[in-house]
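Lecture notes, unit on protein representations.

Consider one protein chain, 332 amino acids long.
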Amino acid sequence: MNIYDVSKKAGVSIATVSRVLNGNQNVSDKTKDKVLSVMKELGYTPNVFARGLGLNTMHTIGILCSDSSDAFLANAVYYIEQALRKNGYESFLCCTGYELENKKNYLRLLLSKRVDAVILVGSHYLEPNKADNDYIISAANEVPVMMINGYLNHPNIYCTLCDDYQAVYDTVGRIASHGKKDFMFLYRSDSNSSRTKIRGFRDGIEAAGLTLAEDAVMFCPNDISETKEILLSYYREGAKCDAILTSEDSLAVAAVKFAGSLGLRIPQDLEIVGYNNSLLGICTEPELSTLDNHVETLSITTVNTLMRVLQGADVPNKTTISNDFIVRGTAY
């Protein structure tokens, strides 16, 4: 039995049930009595949502992160923990890896710790097979679930994401306007974010009236030197390329090294655009032009949304943030 069952039986939103449990004065006596009656009928004992009544709350948030060595994810966790602490909450962090069963096990572990909510950091938690996301939906029937860079439309799930599709789509048009015609897109994971960026890339190419080579969308390993060698092999086989967009900055660094080893001029002969606006962007020569997906804003917005949810406020289940194109030395 969970808060979702109470809201469904009482015919009110989860936020209204939360307000009742928090003693919010903006709930009519009639609605309050109805919710309390349903709770009694169903035998529902509030835990997480009873913080306003001083019952069983741990003031602790669970955080799931797939890979703490990833710069974007590590930064997101840092900003989330800082924001939670400012709001009086501590956190449990679990690094799950990418296997679905491990994600499920760690989420169950956090729920067993009676956390007040769970934050899923990164788009790897959104599986391409919809049925594989049921474990997230099940968790949302117990506690608020916050998703960064993923979207599920279900009660008690709240999503904060950057518009990866539009950012890549617009960037293709921008680079094509410079006369570039032979594009490549490099990515290194089958995450929801990567899939969204690839869609934006392909649609942008079509809108620009260009044609993609068969292997122009290329999966690359998480290693700069290996990616550079893959690009060199591609070039030696006679492939043409005058623009490379990437799903993250590390791949753009590999593209810069590739161009340098061949004596290609950047950006005259080859324009390169990274993603994430990480510190890597200022470690190359020339420095990377990149798309900034505002990891700090994403993280703080997620925590602010969560605080409003825990206070019983009505909040949208999806908040979208625009990316910015950062012009440096590898693209105009």
